[in-house]
Automatic annotation (TrEMBL):
Residues 322-402 form the MSP domain. It catalyses: adenylyl-molybdopterin + molybdate = Mo-molybdopterin + AMP + H(+). It comes from Billgrantia campisalis. It comes from the Bacteria. Its EC number is 2.10.1.1. This is Molybdopterin molybdenumtransferase. Its cofactor is Mg(2+). Pfam families: MoCF_biosynth, MoeA_C, MoeA_N.
Amino acid sequence: MADLQSVETALSALLDGVSPLPAETLSCEAAAGRVLAEAVSARLDVPAFDNSAMDGYALHHDDTGRALPIAQRVVAGQPAAPLARGSCARIFTGGELPPGADCVVMQEQVELIDREAVIPTGIPAGNNIRRRGRDVAAGTRLLDAGQRLEAAALGHLAGQGITGVAVRRRPRVALLSTGDEIVAPGQPLGPGQIYNSNRPMLTRLLERFGAEVVWRAEVPDSADETRRLLGEAARRADVVVTTGGVSVGEADHVKQAVAELGRLDLWRLAMRPGKPLALGRLSRGAAGEARFVGLPGNPVSSFVGAWLFLRPLMGALLGCPSLAGLPTLTARADFAAKTGPRRHYMRVQLGFDEGGAHALAFGDQNSAVLSSCVEADALAVIPEHGSIQPGDPVQCLWLQVP
Ligand SMILES: Nc1nc2c(c(=O)[nH]1)N[C@H]1C(S)=C(S)[C@@H](COP(=O)(O)OP(=O)(O)OC[C@H]3O[C@@H](n4cnc5c(N)ncnc54)[C@H](O)[C@@H]3O)O[C@H]1N2
Ligand code: MOO
């Protein structure tokens, strides 16, 4: 295991054999942000009837260019009566088009003289009409399986009168923070101790990736406690995430414990930050195995590791293709960089000008400097044994996504 593994090798090892979790049925309200387990078909045409896109007058297009008596008034939510030729209907946006009418003229183009509407010429059939089924036709696919239920999708479900949907159960994640030096905010700091930055950061990222953090624990630098708490985590969760304790230090007990409780698939990646990242599985007896992701303790390494590995893992467990990879964008580098055997994921801010996108790297790219992540909206990828000069194109992974 001495050689560095590529990110791609690690990703395929991580996703190998992972299948989507079971479905559960939830009210649409409770399903916000969740991933659809099944496609949803439309039950209704939307709109359900031809209706007006404007406040104005409905008529037959052959009756344009003349003054027409106003035979009825159609407001949204009321049925329209048939319209006789040679007359028009006062109509409001969303009002049902009266049978016999085939166009609507907006009121700004109509003059009212002696209680008749003077209609301009040249109004074609279909003018300002929203046809039945134009948005959604009954029987067609409304939403796909694997789609995340964000705002517009929830609106689409409600537009069909649908009240409940089948979604994937959220992946249950146990989050373990290793290290005697780690203290929870709210507690006093002793000498040499630091507050636990990784826990809230990863909790938030995992929630964004569609997971539920069901258990958290602090793991002291002891081989026995590491083994005990990893075993407990595996019983409670689908995925066990640890931070710290995966390097080569004397207090780095995590890998050994994973090997004893299951299998260490892979350790040490050709990436910066995140070199000591470890992947494996933890046995849960008859309940199969939990996936294990050991993120390095440095907060930036944990942050980058979460985007590159936890996000696609949650995507596979949720059957959600949009979580599989990050959108990429080519930007002009505003910085110089040089790499060795490890691919560098640099934290950058993207700007946009006439020349397209440009990437501005945070000044200090050390893996302990979490400031570099706070305002980063992308990771600029500098390939192994690569070099970038200012002005060169650089591939960026966009982080402003769920
Ligand atoms: N001799 C070597 N030393 C190190 C190597 C190496 O190859 N040879 N790799 C370095 C790299 S790269 C990284 S990354 C770190 C990762 O080490 P660990 O994953 O074992 O993490 P720790 O040693 O436990 O912690 C590293 C660092 O991060 C701080 N930390 C840990 N947990 C948290 C937390 N929850 N919140 C905030 N900060 C945390 C910890 O105090 C350490 O400062 O190893 C290098 N060493
Ligand atoms: O691989 Mo480490 O995360 O650079 O400090």
